[in-house]
Amino acid sequence: MKTKFTLAGAIAVAIWVSGCSGKKEQKTGPDTLAVNVFSLGAKPMSLGDHTIYDGTLEADKTIDLSFQVSGTILSLPIQTGDYVKKGQLVGVIDETVYRNQYNAQLAQAKLAQENYTRINEVFKKGSVAEIKMLEAKSNYEQATSATNATYQNIAHTRLYAPASGYIGEKKAEAGAVASPGQTVLQLLDTRSVKVLVAVPEGEINRYKTGTPAAIKIDALGSQPLQGKVSEVGVLALNGSANYNLKISLVNSDMKLKPGMLCKVVFNQAADAATSSNNGSKEIIVPVQSVQVDEKGSHFLYVVNANRKAIRKDVTTGQLYSNGIVIQSGLAGNEQVITSGYQKLADQTPVTISK
Question: Which domains does the chain show, CATH number per domain?
Fold first, then answer.
């Protein structure tokens, strides 16, 4: 009897312990999860708030320099990257042939002048017909004109910079034979520069001539420069889906050089273009907040007034550097969950991390 009582007691104790353990594992509801949020109501993200592109500086004008006459290049006393001033001598070709031609023409002109002077004196005395005097005068004028033209060939053997700027490329060296119109130097007029920006086809229509932009150039380490769009491209770049925007900048201190890389920030460029018909701006949310379910539908979670995660099915639009456009599904004043959403379900209690 003692053995049975002990066994029965043991079974009773085991049942009691198991019952207590079962009660301890029961949950009254889902766990509260900590999340981070992005508040649309506190700071709505529109396309115009923070749109950044990569840009490259280029000269406002590129001038190809060439000699107007042919000849052997004697000197090109500059190098690529040198800064030259307007009127500075940048090249010389051999003038020997043109100098000899000029001397011959000059001798002919002097002879014609002497002949005309003699015949004119005789004509004044009435001893020669007027036609002879007119022929002598014509020959003198033609010889003088030919001499002047030949002298211009001598002047054209010297090449001068038509504007101040940097030598972008040197395409010939001393000893080479230059031909008329053949480019020997490339001059970059940098009194003003342009920022070249490649913009995707889906965004190019957001910008117009005169749109303000801030230019950040790391090489200068200064405050952003302010510029305006001066040209909006209408042809795609090399068959791609990008179009060029050009932004003009004044280069009064000549610190801006072609080829410098920069960031182009449009803060107000798309205010009008991104407004819908009722005047409200499109909304951009962080990319990581948008998820895709097994059906391929996009959704995200927002926090409601009761601190619960609410699933919102959304329609997404264009992807930008600062987020993705939400075309429908949000009112624009929600708190969008940006992290901690991996374990969420609809109506999950949450706490917002500070």
Answer: 33-47+277-352 (2.40.420.20), 48-68+79-87+163-273 (2.40.30.170), 95-156 (1.10.287)
- Report residue 257 as tokens: 């050089």
Residue 117 to residue 128: CA distance in whole angstroms? 13
Q: Tens digits of per-residue pLDDT, 183-222?
A: 999 999 888 899 999 888 878 888 889 888 999 998 887 6
Q: How many beta carbons lie within 10 A of that of residue 84, not counting itself? A: 19
pLDDT digit string, tens, across residues 43-79: 434 444 568 888 999 988 899 999 999 999 999 999 9
Euclidean distance between CA atoms 237 and 124, whole angstroms: 75
117: left (phi over 0), alpha (psi -120 to 50) or beta: alpha
Concatenate the DSSP letters of all residues of 160-204 into one string: E-SS-EEEEEE---TTSEE-TT-EEEEEEEEEEEEEEEEEETTTG
Three-state secondary-structure class, residue 321: coil
- pTM score, whole prediction: 0.54
Is the separation of the CB atoms in 229 and 207 below 8 Å?
Answer: yes
Under 8 Å between Cβ of 63 and 122: no
